[in-house]
Every structure is written in C-alpha cells, then in structure tokens.
Amino acid sequence: MLFRWSRPVMQRHAMNFEHQIDRPNPQSMTACALVAEVASGRISALDVAEATIAAIAESEPDVQAFAYFDADLLRAQAVAVDAGESLGKLAGVTVGVKDVIATFDMPTSHNTKRYEGVMTGVDAACVDTLRAAGALIVGKTVTTEFAAGQRGGKTRNPHDLTRTPGGSSSGSAAAVAAGMCAVALGTQTGGSTIRPASFNGIFGWKPTWNAISREGLKVYSLTCDTLGLYAREIGDLQLLADVFDLDPSPEPQSLEGLRIALCRTPVWEATEPSMRDAMARGATYLRGQGAQVVELELPSIFNDLHAAHTIILAREGRSAFLNEVRRCPELHDQFHDMVGNARQITPDQARWAYAHADSCRAAFDEIAQGFDAVMTPSACGEAPVGLAFTGDATMNSLWTLLQVPVVSAPGLTGPNGMPLGLSFVTRRYADRTALVIAGLAAQAILEG
Q: Among 200, 203, 199, which Cα is nearest to 233's?
C-alpha cells in the first residue's frame, strides 16, 4: 500500500486555493457539476485534483477507503486533461477504482499477499473507457480478499466509524459517501455493490450482466460477476450510462401512473424490522407521487434460486481460485474449501443450478413486462457494528443471478440513524429505466 504526498497536503492546498475563494468547491461537487465547471473554465482538472487530495487527507485517516493513493499521479492525470486539445464527457470527474480492477499505473493487489504491489501494465476495459472520456483515476479502493467473502476489510462506514461500510466493494462505497471521489467502481457477485450502497446512503448501480465489459476484473464467477458503480446523485450514474453506451430504454419524467411491484422475495425472513419498515415507507412515498404500488409474490420457481446461486458460486470459484491455492497454500480456508469442493457439489447439481437460473431469467422477463420496475430491499437492514462482518447479501443474490439491472436508492434511515436503501429492478438491458425510477424514488423519499 502506498500513500504518497509530494509536499504537506494542506500547505499545498492553501497555496493553490488562496486565489480561488469565490470558486466552486470541487470536493463537494457531483460528477455532472464537475464536468460543467471544467468545461466552462471556472475550474480546471488540476483544481479538482488538489481539492480531492485535501479531501483524502482529511477523511482517509478515519474512513480508510484507499488501498493505494499517489497525489502526484493524480496531479499528472489532471495536468494531461487540462492540456488536451478537447475535453471528454468526464473531464475532471474523480473516480475510485476497486482493487480487483486492473490499472496500468497503479498496483492491483486484490487485498492478498501474492499480488501486493503488482502492476498489471494495462487498464481494465472499464477504466480505459473512463480515461478516454477524461476521468481522473484517484486511486485503488479497499476490497475484501479477491472480492470474495468477508476477509480483509479495514474500511469504516463514514456515517458511523464503528460500523462496516459493507463488502466487498467497501472502499469504493465509503470513498464516495465521504466525498473523497465523485464516483467509484465496484463489483458484484452476490451483493457487493448494492449492499454497500445501502449501508453508505448513496446510489449504487449493478448493471445488466455483461452490459459493461468485465475484461481486466478479477474473475470469481463468470455467471454472476458484474461491474458496479457508485455516486451521490443519480445524474452521475446516468452520465456513466452515456459513457458506457448503455441501451436506450424508457425514461419516465415522474412517478405519476407508473406501475411499481413491491417484491419481498422468497428470502424475506432474512430482513430486519428496520428494512421491513423502510419498504412500507417507500411504498407510501411512491404512492404519494402517484405511482401504483402493487404487491408481487414471485412464483414458486424462484424459491430455489438462492440455492442455485450458492451452487454456481461454489462451482465457479473452484476453478477461479485453483491456481491461487496451488501457488499460495497459506490462503484462507475459504479458498481451499472452494477449490477442494468442500460442499461436494456434483456435476448434476451444477447442471440443475444453471438450468434453473435460465428458467428463472425467462420467467422474470415475462413477469417484469407487467411493471415499470420492481422495488425490493437493498440489504437486510442497517450496517452491522464492527468490521469483521460486512453484512448479509441474502437480499441481493437472487437479482445477481437473474443478471438484471439493480439500482439502490438512498434516503431512508433505520432506528440507529444509519442509511437504508431500496432497490429498483427492471428487465435486462432496461438499465436507464431503473436509473430514472430510482432517482425519482429518492426524490419522493426526500420530499416525503
């Protein structure tokens, strides 16, 4: 891990901003606002970089969201953006990158000893696309080991430092929530994007599976692994949808007349009272804006989907981590168990799981045609106290295996004052619809 400052940060911050007191503060701005201000010339990409460096100096000692950060590298990127012949769609936008996503100029360490300090020499496809649009890659954010399981998370929840920010995309979610970057990249194989979004009170988006390239991301499950994205405002995620060229889909202007399904899912018993209350309050707020909220009980075919997800992860993790275990016997028992097939998953069970997932995807495509979106819990409840356990992903795995887009909308809180998110799900490739409805829902909650 490297934290490199070329000179005392606050001193440099003061030197660069004494003449800019009347300018917007990039540290508190959204991605859309940064793009507008940089394009207008009111601020430069270097101004954004300096404000980001100051924000990290202030918040990182408490939150500990970054596995790697080099202030001079961030400045160099900003200088290059400012010197470019034209500004891209993301000029000056600061992006945190989960440390299982390859970056050519920063180590990709996967929070594991074997890859500590290892430079891939290439960018993941998603990072390459962001750089081409003028984004500033701030640093690598903390993940659990190989983005699998609970082990290795040091990051703390900015809303309460005694609580987890969720995993495995813990650093990305916390960095955005704490204002250390405008947006961030995570991944999701079970609930590693949506659950941290809920715990940190920000927007989280798990796109349709493979709608954004996974080239250059550590593989756990090819069936489930999906890039995830975080922002404090829904417009920033819509901007990223433009940059990644997501398919067009309906973008309603209001909740009035929309048909929203309230879906508790077959694993509703895993939810805590706080989330059950949040779902009820969310439905009330949406109805108050003219939406028709209808109860949806999924057919019995979906009852075994959680089990199918468990089998597929065990089967695919077995091959994904074989080389790691063979080369690093000291890896956690979790990885040895996967490689050694401790669950004794048979080929017949695997074939059933894949076939069952296919059947459920087809069934959900038909069900979802009757609704504009499905509302469902983003997590079981508030973020747990402590850092050893990053929270239960039970409420997320069904949607991950269905490969549908999911957007977690913030705004609600539980009895301990911690954030609670509500997820909005649509049919595959209707990501833009999910984004818009999640944004409208968050506004309804705010106004309610």
A: 203
